[in-house]
Amino acid sequence: MSETDRTNQGGFKRAAKDCFSGTVGGIVQVFVGQPFDTVKVRLQTQGEPPKYTSMLDCVRKTRKEGLTAFYKGTTTPLVGVGACVSIQFLVFEFMKRFFNEKNKRPGQLTLPQLYQIGAAAGMAASFVFCPVEHIRTRLQIQTQIKKYNGPIDCIKKIYSCHGIKGIYKGQLITMAREFHGGACYFLIYEFLMQRAMLKEKKLRNELPGWKKCLYGAASGYGMWSSIYPIDVIKSKIQTDCFSKEKRKYSSSFDCAKQILAREGIKGFFKGFGTCMLRAGPVNASSFVAFEFAMELFEKI
Predict the structure, then answer these.
(1) 209/192 Cα distance (integer angstroms)
(2) What's the Rg (C-alpha) of the chain?
(3) Residue 253: how many CB atoms within 10 A of its CB?
(4) Mind listing the pLDDT tens digit for each residue in 152-171?
């Protein structure tokens, strides 16, 4: 499938292909990244004094709970992240077509256009990312004492006590993360893909798989390097108490101030090493799976 073919198509059939391909990419992303994400979240949300001395110490202690501990809360992201990524790619492909129709040279999007496209995709997906990551995070930090018996039980208990607002705890900070994160994520990948197609004079589906893998990894590294401190704040906000009396942080800004006062700049980068280990393989596999699914669905 050529870039021009993809950008010129529209309607329900095109949207369905984008959506299903994004879902495939999201499911692959969850299976590859969940163990890394569990370690990352535990490092981000540990209190004072720290429960874990390092990333390896966190891995060892989590391992004592059994191998399944690395996949705590997987059901929620398996369904939710599949939906999130499908929304991301659906909006991304739609916005690409929108800007391509305005451009004189279809398939040649500018950096500002790519940033806007990625930001729109991230913002749209944030409304699913927030509740999915909220539930997953609360399940991931459970160790000996279990308050929730799985994602459904977690959703029921939070909703019964705090309503839909409780489910969407941390929505504003998630939107901020996804706006810039989505922009960087898709800008880097699409810029590299466009440059490779122009340089080699090849269509998208003619580029070798290793390049798509490399560009996907680069997009992951770029995205997480730019938004990691925001992600730390989000994790702390979402695992904070619901009641105002017991809450540690009154807002995202208050959370940032407290982290800076207590831990300094390094407090915004807890679990960063784990995240970088995760970013490459997870996002490489996600983009490769998406591109493969797109090519497959075009033949159906």
Answers:
(1) 13
(2) 20
(3) 11
(4) 899 999 999 999 999 999 99
Token pair 């299903």 is at which residue? Answer: 20
Per-residue pLDDT band for 78 (boundaries 50, 70, 90) equals: low
Give, in degrees to the nearest 5, the angle at Cα 294 between 293 and 298: 115
Q: How far is CA 142 from the centre of its chain?
A: 21
pLDDT of residue 76: 64
> CB neighbours of 123 closer than 8 A, spacing ≥ 6?
175, 178, 179, 182
Which residues 6+ apart lie within 8 Å of 34 measured at CB? 70, 71, 74, 77
Residues 223 and 286: beta-carbon distance below 8 Å: no
Instruction: List, as own/partner pairs, every contact residues 93-102 make where C-beta atoms lie below 8 angstroms and the sequence separation is at least 24, other chains included.
Output: 93/6, 93/14, 93/18, 94/15, 94/18, 95/120, 95/121, 96/6, 96/7, 96/190, 97/7, 97/8, 97/9, 97/10, 100/7
Separation of CA 12 from chain center: 26
Residue count of the chain, please give it: 300
Check whether 67 has a pLDDT greater than 80.
no
Superfamily of 3-299 according to CATH: Mitochondrial carrier domain (1.50.40.10)
- Confidence band for 63, pLDDT divided at 50, 70 and 90: confident
* Cβ contacts of 50-56, under 8 Å, gap ≥ 24: 55/271, 55/273, 55/274
Among 1-15, 135-149, 258-272, the range of highest mean pLDDT: 258-272
